[in-house]
Amino acid sequence: MTIFHFGKHAVPLADIHDINLVYKYHDNEIYVDLELNGGAQLSLNLPDSLAFMEQFIKKIRETKNL
Questions:
Q1: Pairwise CA distance, residues 33 & 20, whole Å
Q2: How far apart are CA 30 and CA 50, in angstroms?
Q3: Exposed (0-12), middle (13-18) or buried (19+): which is 50, by Cβ within 10 Å?
Q4: For the whole model, what pTM was predicted?
Q5: Rounded Cα distance, 3 and 11, in Å
Q6: How far is CA 34 from CA 2, 3, 64, 65, in A?
Q7: Per-residue model confidence (pLDDT) at position 2
Q8: Is residue 17 within 8 Å of 11, Cβ to Cβ?
Q9: Can you point out the beta strands (E) in 7-51?
Q10: Which residue from 10, 44, 48, 65 lies 20 to 30 Å from 32 (Cα-Cα)?
């Protein structure tokens, strides 16, 4: 099971139900809100959002053999 780490927290990717992505193109910013199983929501700051997206893109590449 892959686990996303940010700050002092660890979230198994299997526990993520949905992702909401907010981006500010001209400010070079991207923010991720995670909806977890059970209804909990996490809003990630910029560094954690980038770390999450890097891991998520890696997971997509592996799953799709890209």
A1: 5
A2: 7
A3: middle
A4: 0.81
A5: 5
A6: 16, 14, 22, 25
A7: 65
A8: no
A9: 9-12, 16-24, 29-36, 41-43
A10: 65
Q: Taking a C-beta distance cutoff of 8 angstroms, is the pair 25, 34 a contact? A: no
Q: What are the tokens at 13?
A: 């990717």
Tens-binned pLDDT, residue by residue, of the chain (66 aa): 567 776 777 888 888 999 999 999 999 999 999 999 988 898 999 998 998 899 889 889 999 999
Task: Tell me which residue of 19, 21, 37 sits closest to 29, measured CA to CA.
Answer: 21
Q: Which residue has the tokens 């590449």?
A: 61
Tokens 């700050």 — which residue?
7
Residue 39's SS3 state is coil
6 contacts: CB under 8 Å, gap ≥ 6: 44, 48, 51, 52
